[in-house]
């Protein structure tokens, strides 16, 4: 348990940041799933539209250092190649 005022404040801040990070990470996973769902539906235009939105979400989360920028790039690359492989 925190004893000093500074330690108590840091504990409070940690809880708030953890909740925010959890929310952002969940948003990222949802964005990736929505692109995969659009790819499975077979509609290339829809997949490209959803991919553009999810790209900005991935970039913003990487900018906030919730995930590493290379992880965001890897997800974007794999999704883009899946869209490109669509008939």
Would you mind describing this structure in some detail?
By secondary structure, this protein is an all-alpha fold. It has one domain: Ribosomal protein S20 (Methane Monooxygenase Hydroxylase, Chain G, domain 1). The chain is built from 3 helices and no strands. Helix 1 (5-41) runs antiparallel to helix 2 (44-63). The chain starts with a helix and ends with a helix. The mean pLDDT is 96.
What's the helix and strand layout?
Elements: H1 5-41, H2 44-63, H3 69-84
CATH topology: Methane Monooxygenase Hydroxylase, Chain G, domain 1
Distance between the termini: 58 Å
**Roughly what fraction of the amino acids lie in strands?**
under 5%
Number of helical regions: 3
List segments where confidence is low: pLDDT < 50 over at least 5 consecutive residues.
none
Shape: elongated
Domain count: the total is: 1
Structural class, by secondary structure, is mainly alpha
State the total count of DSSP E strands.
Answer: 0
In sequence order, what are the helices and strands, one letter per element?
HHH
Average of the residue pLDDT scores? 96
CATH superfamily: Ribosomal protein S20
What is the C-level CATH assignment?
Answer: Mainly Alpha
Q: What can be said about the biggest beta sheet? A: none
Radius of gyration: 17 Å
Tell me the CATH architecture: Up-down Bundle
Q: Give the proportion of residues in helices.
A: over 70%
